[in-house]
Amino acid sequence: MTVRDRETIEDKLRVSTVQHSDMPSGLISHIKQTGIAFDASAADMGTIADRIQASAPSAVLPNAPTAIQTATDTPAVVAQAVPQSGAPQPAAAPKVDESALRYFASRGDKARLQAEISRLQALYPNWVPPTDPLAIPQNSDKQLETMWQLYSEGRYAELHRAITGRQAAESGWQPPSDLLERLEVAEARTRLINASDLKQYATVVELGASTPSLLTCSDIDILWRVAEAFIRTDRASRGQDTYAYILKNCANPQERLATAQKAAALLPYQPMQDILALEKPDGNSGREFDSIRTDLARRFVAEGNDDPKLDIAPTYLTEVERVAQSQGLASDAVLLGWYYLRRQNYGDAEKWFRIAHDKGDSATASQGFALVLIANGRPQEAEDVMYKWRGVSKDATATYLAATANLMALQPPAALGETVLSRIATEVIAQKYVPTAQQFGWFARSLNQPQTALRWFETALNWKPDDEPSAYGLAVTRNQLNDRQGVAEIQRLWAGRSERIARLNEVRPQVPVSSEPLPLPNLAASQTATALSQPPATPPAKSTTNDTTGVGSSSGIEYSQSERRTPPVTRNTRQPRGCSTTINSQLLTPGDALSRGWCLMDLNRPMEAIEAFETAMDAPAGKMREDAAYGQSLAYLRAGLTNNAAVAAAKAPLSHQRAAELQVAILANRALSAFSAKRYQETLIYLDQRAQLQQERLDLMVLRGYCYLNLKMYDDAERIFSAVAATGSKDGNRGLTDLRLALHPDHSE
Predict the structure, then answer these.
(1) Which of 274, 328, 515, 646 has its CA 20 to 30 A from that of 396?
(2) Which residues, at least 6 apart from 699, have a Cβ–Cβ distance to it below 8 Å?
(3) CB under 8 Å to 126, separation ≥6 — which residues?
(4) Distance from the Cα of residue 178 to its chain's centroid
C-alpha cells in the first residue's frame, strides 16, 4: 500500500478513527493484562474513566501528558521525544504496520504522527518507533491498500467481503491485526452512535464498556454520548465522572467549553458546581467558561424556580440581575421574579415582575406579578393584571381565580364596579369554583343583600355539597331572613359535623383557641375564584356527605346584627314616598331624593340609598344638605364601606351629636375590619380612640381581650375577660377559658 499515493485513513475519517493519543503508553495493554471486564450489565460498574484510572499504574494515569508539545517542523526531531531505534530491543520484535507513520511524517503532521506512535506503543508495548519515519519502506500490496481505502471511506461491509475473498483466494493470508482492530472499533463506534441517536442508552453504556479504546479525548463525541447514557439510565454520578474525566484530561478549548454546556443541560445544580470547579484560566486574565457564564446563571436560576429549597449562589443571581438591567430582556426579569417569589421575598419579586410586565407583558410575567400582588394584599390589582390572560392555561386560570377570591374576601369590601363584578361572576360560574362563590355570599351579606347571599351560598353547596363554610353561610343568612325551618334543616344535615352550625343562635365571638393570629378564609394562591353581579339561580344543595372543610366566614370573628349596629337614625320630618320600584334618583328633586334615601334605608337597600342621598346633596347649604350627608354616611356604614362613610360625613357640616355618633360607628367598624385582617395593634388603636368618645360596649371589650390574647399580652387579656365575665357574660368566661388554654396548651383536655 503506497502511502504517498493514498489519502490516509485518519484524514478521511478523523471522527471515526479511534486513537490513544491522550492515553499513556502501554495503558491499553496494561488493561488487557490486568483482565478488567468492562461489563455494562454489572450493577456496580463505574465510569470507564474511573476503571482505567483505578487499574492503571501510577506512572501511567490519564492525566499524564500524552503528546509532545515541543516538537519542531522536522519529523526526525519529533521522534526524538520517544525512545530511539538505537535503544536496547527486545529479543523478538513484533511485526508492526508502520505505513501510517510514514504518511504522517511525509505530511509534516506532528500531532497525528505522535498520536500514531502512542497508539502503536499501546498495542505493542515492546515496539520502538523509528528514528526517521520517512525511511519506512512504502507498502507495495495493492489489495491491502484497497482494503485500507474501504475502511477510510466507512464501507465496512465491502471491507469484510474483500478480506473474506482474499482469504479464500490466497490460502494462509491474514489481514493485518491493526486493520482488524481498527475495523472492530470503527464498527463498535457506529453501533454506539446509532444506539445513542435512537435513545437506546443501555446499549450505549454496554458498547462503551466493551470498547474502552473508544473512550479517549481523541473522540470526545463518544465520551459525551456515554456520559449522557449514564445520566439517562439513572446513573448521574457516573455521567458526572465522565464529564469530569474530560475536563481533567482533555485539552481542546472548544471541546472543554462544549463539555460544560452539555453537562449543564443534563446535570442538576449541585453536581454542576463540581464540574465547573475544574475550569481553568484562559490565559487572558479570564476563565475558560466566561463566554457561557450568563447562560449557566440563567439555567441555575431557572432550576431554583422549580425547587424553592434550592439556594443558588449569589454570584449567579448577580449575573442574571446584571444582564437583566443591561440587556433589558423581560425573560431575565421573569426568571428573577419567580426565584424571589418562590422564596417569599415579595419585595424583590414585585420589582422584577413589574419590570417584566412593563417591558413585555406575558402570561408568565402577569401570573407571577398577580401572585405577588395577592401576597401583598392587593388582589384588585392582581385581578386586573390577570384578566386578559385568564384563559391561556390552567395555571393562568387558577391565578386569576385566586385573585378574585382574595378580592371578594377583602374587609372592608372593595368598591367594585358593575363591569368587574360581572366578569368575575362569569368566570366563577364557568369554572364552578366554590371558594369564590362562597366569598360572594359573604360579600353580598356585607352589603346587606341577604337574598343575593342566599343564592350564592346555595350555588356553592350545589357545586360542592360538603363545603361547610358555604353551609354555615347559608344557615346564617336563612337565620337573618327568619327562615327557621331552613335553618333547622341545615342543622339536621350537618349534625355532628359542624359545631358552629349546631350552635348558630348563640351570639358569641367565634375565636379559635390559640395564641396564634386568628385565621382568615383559606384562600391559597393556587386556588381560584369569581364574583357577584347576577348570581346563578340554583336550587339549594342538600348535603349528605361526611366531609367538612375548616374555613370560616369572611372574617375570623362573627358578630350578630346587633353588634354591627349603626347609630340611631334621626329622620327627616317629611314622610317618604314609596320606594319599592327602581328609579333614577338623579331625576328627583333634592327633597324627594332625601325622602327616598330614608325609605331605602328602611328597606335595607343601602347602595341605592347612597345614590339618593348623593342627589339630595345638591340642596343648598342647610338642614337638608346636613341630613343628606348624615344619611349617606349611615348607608355606607351599613354597606360596610367605612372609609366612604368618613368621606360622606365631611361633605356637609354636621351637628356635634351626629358627628360624634358617626365617629363612634366608624371607629368601631374600623376596629372590626382591622381585627378581621389580624392587625391587632391597629385594632387596639381604633378601640382606644372610640373609648374616648363613648363607653366601650361589652362586645368591643371582648374584641379588645382577644387582641391582647393574640398579642400575648396575657395580663391585660385576663383583666378584660374578668371584667366582662363579672357582668354575667358567657363571652367573658369563654375568653378566660381560651386564655388558660393559651397559657397551658398541654392541659387542653
Answers:
(1) 328
(2) 509, 559, 563, 731
(3) 90, 93, 94
(4) 56
Q: Quick one: cell of 221?
A: 463525541
The one-letter amino acid at 451: Q
- The mean of the pLDDT values for the chain is 75
Beta strands in 47-182 (DSSP E): none
SS3 37: coil
- Nearest Cα neighbor of 67 from 15, 119, 16 is 119
pTM across the whole model: 0.52
Weakest-pLDDT range from 49-53, 81-85, 529-533, 663-667: 529-533
Q: Give the residue among 688, 640, 704 at the shortest CA–CA distance from 666.
A: 640
Burial (0-12, 13-18, 19+ Cβ within 10 Å), 544: exposed
Q: Yes or no: say if 603 and 580 are a contact pair by the CB < 8 Å rule.
A: yes
pLDDT for position 569 = 43
* Closest-CA residue to 26 (of 121, 128, 92): 121
578, 599 Cβ separation under 8 angstroms: yes
Q: Is the peptide bond before 412 cis (omega within 30 degrees of 0)?
A: yes
Residue pointed to by grid coordinates 385594632: 683
Sign for the CA dihedral angle at 500, 503, 506, 511 comes to negative
Mean pLDDT to the nearest integer, 488-500: 90
Residue 317 grid cell: 443571581
pLDDT winner (highest mean) among 201-210, 278-287, 516-525:
201-210
Residue 438 has which C-alpha cell? 362562597
Q: What is the mean pLDDT of residues 151-155?
A: 81
d(CA 688, CA 700): 11
Full DSSP string of 383-444 = HHHHGGGTTSSHHHHHHHHHHHHHHHT-SSPP---HHHHHHHHHHHHHHT-HHHHHHHHHHH
Find the helix or strand (DSSP H, E) in which 263 lies: helix 253-266
How far is 123 from 310, CA to CA, in rounded Å?
49
**Residue appearing with cell numbers 509532545:** 68
pLDDT band at 620 (very low <50, low <70, confident <90, very high): confident
DSSP state of 536: -
Work out the widest C-alpha separation in the chain, in whole angstroms.
134
- Alpha-carbon Rg for the chain, nearest whole angstrom, is 42
CA–CA separation, 471 vs 458, rounded Å?
A: 8
Q: What is the pLDDT of residues 546-593, one digit of tens each?
A: 332 222 333 333 333 333 334 444 444 343 446 767 777 777 888 888
- Output the CA–CA distances (angstroms, integers) from residue 412 to 438, 476, 632, 671, in the order listed: 16, 19, 17, 11
In whole angstroms, what is the distance from residue 241 CA to residue 336 CA? 31
Whether the Cβ atoms of residue 439 and residue 405 lie closer than 8 Å to each other:
yes
Residues 425, 533 contacting (CB under 8 angstroms)? yes
CB of 370 within 8 A of CB of 385?
yes
**Residue 15 DSSP symbol:** T
Q: How far apart are CA 277 and CA 338, in angstroms?
A: 27
Cα 512 to Cα 518: distance, rounded to the nearest angstrom: 6
DSSP-derived 3-state class of residue 287: strand
Q: CB count, 10 Å around CB of 193?
A: 17
- DSSP annotation of 281: B
